[in-house]
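Exercise 3.2. Students should predict the tertiary structure of the chain below and write it as structure tokens, then compare their answer with the key that follows.

Predict this chain's 3D structure.
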Amino acid sequence: MKNKEWKMKNVNDIFFNKKLALIHYSLFISLLFLSSCKIYSFTGTTLSKDLKTITIQNFVMNTAGGPANLTLTFTEKLKEYYQRNTSLKLKPNDADLLLEGAITGYELTPVSATSGDKAALNRLTIRVEVRFFNAKNEDENFEKEFSFYQDFPQEQTLAQVEGSLVPKIIDQLVLNIFNDTAAQW
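Answer key:
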């Protein structure tokens, strides 16, 4: 009986060791893929290790309409996102990376017409022109327009929904800008 128990224990040890070896092998292969080509992090950034600082200039308003604090809110959300998701330090000027730009559109347009020539939905769109400069790699510099929108029912006025829609739009714009500058998706 003892011999049978010993054989069973030995078989379980071998199975456990094979399973452990397979897990180690899988982790090794995963790390190998992550370390090839570019520098990846768990926040999704591909920033070079020699990039230490970023300057985010206050965005300006180049359009009519929108809340009075739109540019300030947008700029602060952008700064906060970079601080939270990278190791870059904010610097007032002469940084490794520079982001600047303007809000160029704050538009309300009707979409999805009904039979009575009334809009079933209205769309709030915010457009932002962004200039990105990388002092360490000028090939990554760009000037690009980003835009995002949210729809809302025509029964509601812009004043009723602006407080909830604008933060959602800003959050998505910040994410899109971050992806194009720090994550380069």
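Discussion points: The chain has two domains: 1-36, 53-183. The beta strands are 53-56, 60-61, 89-90, 97-113, 119-134, 142-153.
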